[in-house]
Structures are given as C-alpha cells and as structure tokens.
Amino acid sequence: MYMDFLNPAERVQAAAIAELAYSNPFMPERITHERAVLGDDFAAAEAVWTLRAGRAVQNVNLELLRERAGRLATVLRERLVAGARTTAKDLELFEDVVLYVLYDRHEGALWELIDRGLGRGRVGAWDAFRRDAERLLDVPGIELPSRRGLPALFAGFFQVRRAFHHIFSDIIGGSMPAARLRAAVWESIFTYDMRRYRRALIDRMGDMTTLIVGPSGTGKELVARAIALSRYIPFDPDRGRFADQSGVTLHPLNLSALSPTLIESELFGHRRGAFTGALADREGWLEECGPLGTVFLDEIGDVDPSIQVKLLRVLQTRTFERLGDTKPLSFRGKIIAATNRDLSREIQVGRFRQDFYYRLCADMIETPSLAEQLRDAPEELPHLVLFLVERIVGEAEAEALAQEVAAWIEHHLGLSYPWPGNVRELEQCVRNVLIRREYRPPTVPPSGTREAFVAGIANGTLTADELLARYCTLVYADTRSYQETARRLGLDRRTVRKKVDLAQVEALDGSLAAISGRRISPSS
Is CATH 3.30.530.20 correct for 220-368? Predict the structure, then answer.
C-alpha cells in the first residue's frame, strides 16, 4: 500500500527546520524560520540576539522547536522503516531534521567539553552521540550520508558550538551593525553556505586569509580570536578523542610595534648569526603554527614593503625560509590580518602592494565604530557600559557603578559624543570614572593647514599662485589621485602635479590620524 512520506504541512515544517538548522544564528532571518516552524505558537523574539550583562539570554521558542522537530523526526523515521516511498529531496529533508534534533539534544554535552576542556581521555559525549545518531539515521535499505560520517558530524557539531560561544561571548552589542559583525564572523568560519562547508570545505578554510578592517578600538583582535579558536578539530573514533586541542592557537603580532628585522625574526625565525644578536637558531611563528593554529598580523597596513613581498610568497605558495637560511619550510596554519588604514589609499600612494592586498582580501570583515552602533541603537550605551563595568569590578558592584558612569556621560559628554576611541575609549571612560569620578577626553589640536588656508583667503594675504597650490594640495589630500584632483578642479593633470605640496599632504595625514584614531607611520 502506498504511504505518503510527507504531507504538505509536514513538508513546509521540515523545510523550515532544515533552513533553521543551516541558517546564520546571528542574523534576524532565523526568526523567519522559527516562525515558519511554529506558526501561531511562535513567540515574538528580539531581532538581535546579544549577550547582556547580568541577564540570562533565552530564546523562548527553543523548547517548542525542540519538541516539534523531535516529533517530526520520529514520525518520519517510522514511515521510512514501514516502507514509505520517498524522493532524494524527501530524504535530504529527513536528514536535515534529524541533524537539527541531534545537535539540540547533545548541545549541552558539547558545551561541557568547551567549559572543562577536552583533556587527554576518551570523550564520553561521543558514545552517547553515536548511539543516538545511529538510532535515528539507521534505516533499513537507505544509506544516509551523515550515517557514514558520524565522527565528522560530531566534530562539526563541536565546531558549531565553539564558534557560537566565542562569537556570542566576545562580540557584544544589540545594534544591527554589531549583529552584522557577528554574522560576518560566522561566515568567515563556515561561509554563507554551511551545506557546502560540510561537503567540501571543512579542512580547507585554513587556506583562506581573512582581512579585518576598521577604526582603532573596535575589537579587531576579538574578531580574530573568535575565528582562530573556532577552527575545525578532527575526531578520531577509534581512540574516542579529538585531535590535540592545544594546537588551536592564536599567535598575535603587532607589526607597527617592531622594526622590520624583528618582524622577520618573529614571523620567519632565524639561523644563528643571521643578524646582530642572533645568538642561536630560532623558530618563527609561521614555523611554530600547526595546521589548527592561526597567525594574526595586526596593523598590516604599517608593514614594510620588503616584508609584504615575503608574506605574499607565504600566501601564494605556503612556503618561507628562516632569516639566514635557504631551506624552504611549510606554513600549515591560517593567516588573519587587520588594519585601521585605508588600504586602497595606501596602494594609490605606493605604500602597500596591490598584489599583496588581493591575496589578503579573499575574506574581509569590517568592524563598526561605536558611533555607528549608537546611531543605530542609542539605547545600547547603558548595556555596553554595564557589560564593561561587570568585567572590570564584578557583578556585586556593577549596577551602581554603571549608573554612575552613564550619568557622568550624559551630564558631561552628552549622548551625542562621537567616541573617537570607540569601545576602547568607553572602557577607559569607565575606569576613569571608577578611579577619579570623571573622564576627560583628550583634546586634539586642530590641523593648522586648513585653518591657515581659510584665514589666508579671508585676510587676502595669499597670492593667486599660493591660493591655487594650497587648494590643489587640500583636494589631493582627500583624493590621493592627481587625475581625480585635476578632474574636480578643471585643471590639467600636470599643473596639479606641480602645485601639490607633498609635505603639506603629510601634515594633513597626521592631523586626520589624530582626529580619527588612525595610526600613521612616520614615513606616511
């Protein structure tokens, strides 16, 4: 007798569960999928899911989703065992529903592995997971792909749980810019298509370089940390253990804080005698970094062009040599780079190699400024203050100090204060109010170049030639292109090139860096 495997309502529900299982948990689209599963029983939830200090984070729909998905998985399996006719698409929907159920059931055990660490013994959570997965996925006469790869499925679930933990715990904020940042980090780990990631990319994402751009103080290292600590760790079912978790490491190097020689030594290592002070052979971080590790190159926009060439080779060939040696070595990890500079402008003026940039930007994340977050959600400021206060003084004193800081900001800075130092400045504001009951932002002296130009026009003290030269210089400082400056001013490109004062351009760079918080090297 013919038996329908899925009736129309079940098909809609199964498809919604499948979309929910593979959706990015940090984007509001998940709410659409939850509503499709639950229908009239859906309870309205916040569009942005974020960590709140002093408050447990709950999704009131999870329990009902768990019950619906579990019941549907059981019913569909019974129909398969009874001989219901199915299509390949039906089987794919069934498998997706089962995977949702399995992850939900074993999420707590996976969290315990994160909380207490993997250790060196057998992972007990694996045996419970395997038994449950085999019970749901073993169907006579049907070979489901996930049934053949339970160890990889278990390791994938562990990666998903770790990624959610690191992103959710370290990247906070209830604004849409903050939500988009968390979603972007999730995609850097799994891509936008997790099905494809499972099929083909699990062991290849380490080859993808991530470039993080954004103003100083916006959490670029936190983003790098979340990505690095969420790498896929293979699981060995025979030993009942994951690969060595200690290999999942982040090696941060601030390139603006070191000389080119020291950068090369830290990255590539050196042989004894390679330079003054090299008294013994030394491994660099590229050599120490294992397959599950990540090297984080902070302030990549400040690095010397000669080092850019060497790093370009690492990205192209995954090989390098120690300083003073000719033996090629292999780099097996992942590279993440970050900068607060406008690299397109740096390329225009010849300070950053274009070919190096194109090797870096396969995956790019932009961290939003605090001002951008507060423009979208002004009510976020007290929550951010409370979160920072709790980390600084603990829960017992958090509420009182947070109210004191928020009141000080409102009365002395105003709610429209732009926070040029971003979250880092907000944190120092909290510490200042804690210690001295006040916070005084640094006063940045304005650049004299633009003011002198305006004053010269107003006073009539500039000659026509000086007027043209200064105007060309100001426009060029914004465009960094002789051709674009000439187009804007209606002049010949050669005239613009003769009139631009590069020394004044440097002065304008310095003043803009001070105002925006960008780091400008002495040579820029």
Answer: no
